[in-house]
């Protein structure tokens, strides 16, 4: 079986075809004459033809070399120009559909701003499909099922790029008319009250009990939800309390009669990030989207 030719061999063919001598062709490619001779032998073996015959002081192409020359020139032109050219991306004319993976709270807080920005930019041909974030997210990014993930995420593979959008602190959310938590939220309140826990598979929001254990604290969980949906109404209409990041807590306060309190102890803050696979790192449309989301987060969510 013949070996496949590499670009280096094709470049040498092109230089020899133009210059008619091994030494000038090798010099044009900044390689040694022996290396040029090796490449010529590789070409001859591959095409089973001498390709170039010495006539006087020149190496003249054979009919086979003349026949393949234009194809070689086209391949090199593609490699040097068309294949290397970065395609343009115009949000105003694009009809691209991006798939985003995010928590429900990001769907409620980020997506409205994103739609507003698209309208203001005249980029309403761009569409989005949204997946609920879960433990399959890294695989979805790798396979291309998902373009971008947004959330509090930990232990992602090395093939995934990350960008911090904003930091969040945990707070306690309770009903505005809670019968016992009126003037302050104390450590006694923490241990006495029943808790609503929110554990979202595939995100760091399921790690809060580990964080509490590390500082020697525990909580009495009465109800566990798989998302933030329903948390505002449940807290507002009961005596349950919930530990949630400050940004979603403030969002819930706008829609339900709740209030937030600082925790009676310190917990590490969390970083909300956007994540993408390395295959999309230089894609112009993807770069534009990441920049737009980072700007929205800085302006509205931080």
From TrEMBL:
Domain HTH lysR-type: 5-62
Protein name, UniProt field: LysR family transcriptional regulator
Any one Gene Ontology molecular-function term assigned to this protein's record: DNA-binding transcription factor activity
UniProt record similarity statement: Belongs to the LysR transcriptional regulatory family.
Organism classification: Bacteria, Pseudomonadati, Pseudomonadota, Gammaproteobacteria, Enterobacterales
Keywords, sorted A to Z: DNA-binding, Transcription, Transcription regulation
């Amino acid at each position: 079986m013949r070996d496949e030719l590499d670009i280096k061999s094709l470049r040498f063919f092109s230089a020899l075809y133009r210059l008619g001598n091994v030494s000038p062709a090798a010099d044009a490619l900044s390689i040694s004459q022996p290396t040029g001779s090796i490449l010529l032998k590789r070409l001859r073996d591959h095409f089973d033809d001498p390709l170039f015959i010495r006539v006087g002081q020149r190496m003249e192409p054979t009919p086979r070399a003349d026949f393949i020359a234009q194809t070689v020139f086209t391949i090199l032109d593609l490699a040097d120009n068309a294949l290397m050219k970065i395609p343009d991306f115009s949000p105003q004319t694009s009809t691209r559909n991006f798939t985003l993976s995010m928590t429900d709270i990001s769907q409620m807080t980020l997506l409205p701003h994103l739609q507003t920005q698209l309208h203001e930019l005249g980029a309403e041909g761009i569409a989005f499909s949204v997946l609920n974030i879960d433990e399959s997210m890294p695989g979805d990014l790798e396979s291309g099922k998902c373009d971008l993930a947004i959330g509090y995420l930990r232990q992602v593979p090395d093939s995934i790029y990350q960008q911090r959008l904003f930091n969040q602190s945990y707070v306690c959310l309770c009903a505005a008319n809670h019968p016992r938590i009126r003037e302050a939220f104390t450590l006694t309140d923490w241990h006495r009250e029943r808790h609503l826990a929110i554990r979202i598979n595939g995100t760091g929001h399921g790690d809060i009990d580990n964080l509490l254990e590390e500082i020697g604290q525990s909580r009495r969980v009465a109800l566990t939800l798989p998302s933030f949906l329903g948390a505002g109404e449940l807290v507002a209409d009961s005596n349950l309390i919930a530990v949630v990041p400050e940004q979603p807590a403030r969002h819930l306060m706008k829609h339900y009669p709740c209030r937030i309190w600082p925790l009676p102890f310190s917990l590490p803050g969390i970083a909300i990030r956007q994540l993408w696979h390395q295959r999309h790192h230089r894609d112009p449309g993807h770069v534009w989207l990441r920049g737009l989301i980072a700007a929205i987060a800085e302006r509205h969510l931080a």
